[in-house]
Amino acid sequence: MPEPEPEPGRRPPAYDPLQPGKGEAIAPTGQGGPMDLALDEAESLEKPLGDAPTGPGPQEKARSLWSDAWHQLRRNPVFIISSLMILFLVIIAIWPQLIASGDPLQCDLSKSQQGSSPGHPFGYDTQGCDVYTRTVYGARASITVGVCATLGAALLGSVLGGLAGFFGGWGDSLLSRVADIFFGIPVVLGGLVFLSVVTSTTVWPVVGFIVLLGWPQIARIGRGSVITAKQNDYVQAARALGAGNGRMLLRHVAPNAVAPVIVVATIALGTYIALEATLSFLGVGLRPPTVSWGIDISNAAPQIRNAPHMLLWPAGALSLTVLAFIMLGDAVRDALDPKLR
Amino acid sequence: MLLEVRDLHVEFRTRDGVAKAVNGVNYSVDEGETLAVLGESGSGKSVTAQAVMGILDVPPGRIAGGEILFKGKDLLKMKEEERRRIRGADMAMIFQDALSSLNPVLSVGAQLGEMYEVHRGMSRKDAKAKAVELMDRVKIPAARERVGDYPHQFSGGMRQRIMIAMALALEPSLIIADEPTTALDVTVQAQVMDLLAELQRELNMGLILITHDLGVVADVADKIAVMYAGRIVEAAPVHEIYAAPAHPYTRGLLDSIPRLDQKGQELYAIKGLPPNLLAIPSGCAFNPRCPMARAVCRTDVPPLAQVGQDRASACFFWKECLGG
C-alpha cells in the first residue's frame, strides 16, 4: 500500500515554543562559545516550519516513525559519509596502533619542527614528537569526551526535563530557573574558572564540566516535547483506562517525545568535541601527558609561520571530526522531523 | 442505581476569571441503560464526563461541589489510587478521535494488551492472545494477522472499533462515549453505533453517550439530558422529547434538524451564540436567544422542575412549550 504523505498521527509531536519569556535566556551562552551552533539548531527545531511537507514520501509500506526514519537515513548520502567517517574515528580511537606504529610520547628533540620525511608523513613538532602519531592518538581523547559528555548531558537533561514537563508545578518552575542559571554561564569563562582548580590529568573533569553546562539545553528540549506529547489524546485515553503516572510517562509519553532530544544530542556531540579542544587550547582542558588535538594546536599556534604543518594536521583532524558529527546530527534531524522533509 | 451525579459544579480558573463550565448537573444511569447527553460545544457535557472519569485537568479545573456516586460510593471522596483501579476496569471511556486516541508508536495489540497487563497482571504473551480475541469481538477482519499493526494502518472506523474494544476489554459496568462517531463518515457511524449498542446489551452496561447528533440519539438512547451553559435544561425519556419538547432550547435543536419535506426552504437555526462561560447571563442562561423569553427570565434562574412522569424542564413556561 503506497503511503503518499506521512499521516499526522505518526509524526513526532510539534515543537511547542516553550514558556513565553524564556527565549531570552538563550542569549548569554551565545557569546561566541562553541555551544552556539547546537543552540541555533535547538532553536530552529522549536520553531514550527510554515510549509507542509511537499517532497515525495517513501514508496514502501511505512511501519512507524522509527523504521521510517531508518529507511530515510539509509538513503541519505550525508548520513552514509558521516557515519563512515565516525566509524573510522571510533576504530582509531579504540585501536590507534592499527594505523600508527609509533609512541606519541616518544620524542626526539633533535628533530624539532622538521617537515615530512619517510615514515613520518606529517613531520615533527617543537618537542620532536611525530605529528602523525599524535594526531591519530588524539582522536581517543576527543571521541571519549564527546561521547561521554553527550551521554551524560542527554541522560541528565532528558530525565530532569522529562519529569519537569510531565509533572509540572513547582518542580518544573524550579528546574527551569536552575537551567536558566546554567544557561547564563559563559562557556569559556566558566571553563577557565571551574577547570583551573582541577589537578587531574584525566578526561573526566572536562566531561563533567561539559555535562554541567550541556544538560539544560537537552532538558529544555525534552521538557518542551514532553509537554507537547502529554497533551495528546492517547495519553488522556491511557489515563481514562487506568494507567498510572509511571506507565503513562514511560510507555506513552517518552517514546513520542524522544526524537527531538536525540537530534539535539547528536548535533551537540560535535560541538562538545570542539569545546574540549577549545578548553585544551586554553590550557584548562586536557593536560599532558594526555594526547589531545587541542593541546597540540595550542603548542603549534606560536610557530604557525615557520612550521605550519604542526598546526594543520591536528586542526584538520579536529575540523573533520566535528564536521562528521554535525553532519550526522543533521541527517538524523532530517529523518526524525517530517516537517523538514 | 449504577451512577448518580448530584449537583456537580466544575470551574476552570483562566487568566480572565473563573469559567463555570458545569453548574449543578444531576443525572443518573442504571445498568443496561443508555443516557444521551446532548448539547452544543461548551455546554459542559464533556467536562461532566471527565469529572466522572476523574481525568479532569486539575488545575486549571476544579470540582467546586457535588457528589458522583458510583455503585453507591462517592468517587470524589476516594483516593487517587483507588480511582485509578476503577478507571478502565469498572468504568471506561471512548474518545472522539480514535486516531489521536491511540498511541502512534505502539501496535494496537500492545495497546489492547496493556489493559490486561495493568489491571489483571497478565504476561505480555497472554495479553496478546486476549488482544486478538478482543479484535475478533469488535469484528476486525484477520485479527490474528493485524494484531501487530500500528494505528495509522487502520481505517477510521476500525480505529474507533479498536478504541471500543479497549474500553470494553475488562467488561466495565459503565461506559462513557464522548462523541464516538463525530470523526467518522455516515455509513461507518451507523456500524460503530450498532456495535456499541450490541455490546452494551450483551454486557448489560450503563452507557453515557455524549453527542450533538440527534439522529444517533433517537436510535440508541433510553433517556436524554439536554445541557446548556453547564446546566441540564431538560431531561426526559427519548420518545417523549421528540414528540413534545418541554424547553424552548430543545425545541430549537429539534427544529434545526434538516427534514426532507423542507426542500427549498432555509434551515432553521437558533439565533445567537452559546454564552461565554466567564459571564453567563443572569436569570435563565438561554434568555438572550429564547423566542419565549419574558422579564422574569432575565432575573430569576428557573429550577429544573418535574413536568411529568420521569420528565423535568428548567423553563418557567414549560407548559406553553409542551402545548406548542
TrEMBL record, chain B:
Signal peptide: none annotated. Its main location: membrane. Gene3D superfamilies: P-loop containing nucleotide triphosphate hydrolases (3.40.50.300). Residues 5-254 form the ABC transporter domain. GO terms for molecular function: ATP binding. It is a peripheral membrane protein. Keywords: ATP-binding, Cell membrane, Membrane, Nucleotide-binding, Transport. PROSITE patterns: ABC_TRANSPORTER_1 (PS00211), ABC_TRANSPORTER_2 (PS50893). It is found in: Cell membrane. InterPro entries: AAA+_ATPase, ABC_Ni/Peptide_Import, ABC_transporter-like_ATP-bd, ABC_transporter-like_CS, Oligopep_ABC_C, P-loop_NTPase. Belongs to the ABC transporter superfamily. This is ABC transporter ATP-binding protein. It comes from Streptomyces flavotricini.
